[in-house]
Design a protein that fits this description.
Blueprint lengths: L1 H25 L6 H8 L3 H7 L3 H26 L5 H18 L1 H10 L2 H9 L7 H13 L7 H21 L6 H18 L8
Protein backbone atom coordinates (compact mmCIF):
# COMPACT_ATOMS: atom_id res chain seq x y z
CA UNK A 1 0.00 0.00 0.00
CA UNK A 2 2.87 2.35 0.83
CA UNK A 3 4.45 1.86 -2.61
CA UNK A 4 1.13 2.56 -4.34
CA UNK A 5 0.71 5.80 -2.41
CA UNK A 6 4.30 6.82 -3.13
CA UNK A 7 3.78 6.14 -6.83
CA UNK A 8 0.62 8.26 -6.92
CA UNK A 9 2.35 11.09 -5.10
CA UNK A 10 5.30 10.92 -7.48
CA UNK A 11 3.03 11.10 -10.55
CA UNK A 12 1.19 14.11 -9.13
CA UNK A 13 4.48 15.89 -8.39
CA UNK A 14 5.73 15.05 -11.89
CA UNK A 15 2.63 16.69 -13.39
CA UNK A 16 3.07 19.74 -11.15
CA UNK A 17 6.73 20.12 -12.14
CA UNK A 18 5.91 19.77 -15.83
CA UNK A 19 3.10 22.31 -15.57
CA UNK A 20 5.33 24.81 -13.76
CA UNK A 21 7.96 24.54 -16.48
CA UNK A 22 5.42 25.02 -19.24
CA UNK A 23 3.46 27.81 -17.57
CA UNK A 24 6.66 29.82 -17.07
CA UNK A 25 7.99 29.00 -20.56
CA UNK A 26 4.84 29.35 -22.69
CA UNK A 27 2.34 31.01 -20.40
CA UNK A 28 -0.76 29.53 -18.84
CA UNK A 29 -3.14 30.30 -21.71
CA UNK A 30 -0.90 28.70 -24.36
CA UNK A 31 -0.27 25.52 -22.37
CA UNK A 32 -2.64 22.58 -22.88
CA UNK A 33 -3.27 19.47 -20.83
CA UNK A 34 -1.73 17.50 -23.72
CA UNK A 35 1.44 19.61 -23.40
CA UNK A 36 1.64 18.90 -19.67
CA UNK A 37 1.24 15.13 -19.88
CA UNK A 38 3.64 14.98 -22.80
CA UNK A 39 6.29 16.87 -20.80
CA UNK A 40 5.59 14.66 -17.77
CA UNK A 41 5.78 11.46 -19.83
CA UNK A 42 2.41 10.26 -18.55
CA UNK A 43 -0.86 9.22 -20.15
CA UNK A 44 -3.55 11.90 -20.53
CA UNK A 45 -5.95 9.88 -18.38
CA UNK A 46 -3.50 10.08 -15.50
CA UNK A 47 -3.92 13.86 -15.43
CA UNK A 48 -7.61 13.57 -14.57
CA UNK A 49 -6.92 11.26 -11.65
CA UNK A 50 -5.41 14.26 -9.84
CA UNK A 51 -6.88 17.40 -11.41
CA UNK A 52 -10.29 18.43 -12.74
CA UNK A 53 -8.81 20.60 -15.46
CA UNK A 54 -5.95 22.97 -16.22
CA UNK A 55 -7.39 25.64 -13.92
CA UNK A 56 -7.60 23.23 -11.01
CA UNK A 57 -3.97 22.25 -11.61
CA UNK A 58 -2.94 25.92 -11.70
CA UNK A 59 -4.53 26.62 -8.31
CA UNK A 60 -2.98 23.52 -6.76
CA UNK A 61 0.38 24.40 -8.29
CA UNK A 62 0.30 27.91 -6.82
CA UNK A 63 -0.48 26.42 -3.41
CA UNK A 64 2.21 23.74 -3.86
CA UNK A 65 4.95 26.23 -4.78
CA UNK A 66 3.85 28.69 -2.10
CA UNK A 67 3.91 25.92 0.50
CA UNK A 68 7.48 25.04 -0.47
CA UNK A 69 8.42 28.72 -0.22
CA UNK A 70 6.88 29.18 3.23
CA UNK A 71 8.51 25.95 4.43
CA UNK A 72 11.91 27.19 3.25
CA UNK A 73 11.34 30.56 4.93
CA UNK A 74 10.39 28.83 8.17
CA UNK A 75 13.55 26.72 8.10
CA UNK A 76 15.69 29.83 7.63
CA UNK A 77 13.86 31.62 10.42
CA UNK A 78 14.61 28.73 12.78
CA UNK A 79 18.33 29.24 12.10
CA UNK A 80 18.22 32.97 12.73
CA UNK A 81 18.46 34.78 16.04
CA UNK A 82 15.41 37.03 15.78
CA UNK A 83 14.54 39.00 18.94
CA UNK A 84 10.93 40.14 18.40
CA UNK A 85 7.72 39.15 16.63
CA UNK A 86 7.98 42.21 14.42
CA UNK A 87 11.49 41.18 13.40
CA UNK A 88 10.25 37.67 12.59
CA UNK A 89 7.63 39.10 10.22
CA UNK A 90 10.22 41.30 8.52
CA UNK A 91 12.69 38.40 8.27
CA UNK A 92 10.09 36.15 6.63
CA UNK A 93 9.05 38.94 4.27
CA UNK A 94 12.63 39.66 3.25
CA UNK A 95 13.30 35.97 2.64
CA UNK A 96 10.19 35.47 0.48
CA UNK A 97 10.78 38.64 -1.54
CA UNK A 98 14.46 37.78 -1.88
CA UNK A 99 13.50 34.44 -3.42
CA UNK A 100 11.13 36.17 -5.83
CA UNK A 101 13.85 38.61 -6.87
CA UNK A 102 16.41 35.87 -7.61
CA UNK A 103 14.05 33.28 -9.14
CA UNK A 104 12.22 34.79 -12.10
CA UNK A 105 9.99 31.76 -12.88
CA UNK A 106 8.90 31.60 -9.23
CA UNK A 107 8.25 35.34 -9.24
CA UNK A 108 6.28 35.19 -12.50
CA UNK A 109 4.03 32.42 -11.30
CA UNK A 110 3.75 32.61 -7.53
CA UNK A 111 4.20 36.32 -6.73
CA UNK A 112 1.52 37.20 -9.27
CA UNK A 113 -0.92 34.71 -7.76
CA UNK A 114 0.04 34.67 -4.09
CA UNK A 115 -3.18 35.36 -2.20
CA UNK A 116 -5.19 34.16 0.74
CA UNK A 117 -7.98 33.21 -1.67
CA UNK A 118 -5.82 30.47 -3.17
CA UNK A 119 -4.87 29.24 0.28
CA UNK A 120 -8.46 29.14 1.45
CA UNK A 121 -9.69 27.37 -1.69
CA UNK A 122 -7.18 24.60 -1.18
CA UNK A 123 -7.85 24.35 2.57
CA UNK A 124 -11.56 23.94 1.88
CA UNK A 125 -10.67 20.99 -0.33
CA UNK A 126 -8.88 19.31 2.55
CA UNK A 127 -5.33 20.25 1.56
CA UNK A 128 -2.73 21.52 4.00
CA UNK A 129 -1.60 24.65 2.23
CA UNK A 130 0.06 26.98 4.68
CA UNK A 131 2.54 24.53 6.24
CA UNK A 132 1.31 23.52 9.68
CA UNK A 133 4.78 24.00 11.18
CA UNK A 134 4.85 27.55 9.80
CA UNK A 135 1.39 28.43 11.08
CA UNK A 136 2.09 26.84 14.48
CA UNK A 137 5.31 28.84 14.73
CA UNK A 138 3.39 32.02 13.88
CA UNK A 139 0.86 31.39 16.66
CA UNK A 140 3.57 30.38 19.12
CA UNK A 141 5.53 33.54 18.33
CA UNK A 142 2.51 35.71 19.09
CA UNK A 143 2.32 34.04 22.50
CA UNK A 144 6.09 33.97 23.12
CA UNK A 145 6.50 37.67 22.42
CA UNK A 146 3.26 38.54 24.28
CA UNK A 147 1.59 39.97 21.19
CA UNK A 148 -2.12 40.23 21.94
CA UNK A 149 -3.44 39.95 18.39
CA UNK A 150 -7.18 40.45 17.91
CA UNK A 151 -7.31 38.15 14.86
CA UNK A 152 -4.13 36.16 14.01
CA UNK A 153 -5.56 34.69 10.80
CA UNK A 154 -6.77 38.06 9.54
CA UNK A 155 -3.41 39.66 10.26
CA UNK A 156 -1.62 36.89 8.37
CA UNK A 157 -4.09 37.30 5.49
CA UNK A 158 -3.27 41.01 5.30
CA UNK A 159 0.47 40.37 5.34
CA UNK A 160 0.30 37.67 2.64
CA UNK A 161 -1.89 39.79 0.35
CA UNK A 162 0.47 42.75 0.74
CA UNK A 163 3.59 40.69 0.02
CA UNK A 164 2.00 39.10 -3.05
CA UNK A 165 0.67 42.31 -4.60
CA UNK A 166 3.77 44.43 -3.97
CA UNK A 167 6.13 41.71 -5.15
CA UNK A 168 4.24 41.34 -8.41
CA UNK A 169 4.10 45.07 -9.11
CA UNK A 170 7.57 46.10 -7.95
CA UNK A 171 9.57 43.05 -9.05
CA UNK A 172 7.89 42.07 -12.30
CA UNK A 173 6.57 45.44 -13.43
CA UNK A 174 9.00 47.81 -11.67
CA UNK A 175 5.85 49.80 -10.88
CA UNK A 176 5.52 52.26 -9.25
CA UNK A 177 9.16 51.77 -8.20
CA UNK A 178 11.69 48.96 -7.94
CA UNK A 179 11.44 46.47 -5.08
CA UNK A 180 14.69 47.78 -3.60
CA UNK A 181 13.27 51.29 -3.45
CA UNK A 182 9.96 50.10 -2.03
CA UNK A 183 11.34 47.80 0.70
CA UNK A 184 11.70 50.48 3.43
CA UNK A 185 8.07 51.50 2.90
CA UNK A 186 6.96 47.87 2.94
CA UNK A 187 8.73 47.33 6.26
CA UNK A 188 7.05 50.35 7.81
CA UNK A 189 3.66 49.23 6.48
CA UNK A 190 4.11 45.76 7.96
CA UNK A 191 4.94 47.32 11.33
CA UNK A 192 1.73 49.34 11.11
CA UNK A 193 -0.29 46.24 10.23
CA UNK A 194 1.02 44.50 13.34
CA UNK A 195 0.19 47.60 15.38
CA UNK A 196 -3.37 47.75 14.03
CA UNK A 197 -4.04 44.12 14.92
CA UNK A 198 -2.41 44.34 18.35
CA UNK A 199 -4.23 45.27 21.53
CA UNK A 200 -1.94 47.01 23.97
CA UNK A 201 -2.53 46.29 27.64
CA UNK A 202 -3.48 49.35 29.68
CA UNK A 203 -0.76 50.51 32.00
CA UNK A 204 -1.54 49.85 35.64
Amino acid sequence: MGKVDDNKKQKKHTLLRAAFQLFTEKGFSKTTVADIVDRAGLAKGTFYLYFKDKFDLRDKLIAYKATQLFNDAHLELDKANVPTFEDEVLFMTDYIIGRFMTDEPLSQFVAKNLSWGIFQAEVSNGASVLPQAFFDHYLESLERYHVNCTSPSLMLYTIIELIGSTSYSCILKQTPVSMEEYMPYLHETLKKIIEVFTVKEDAE
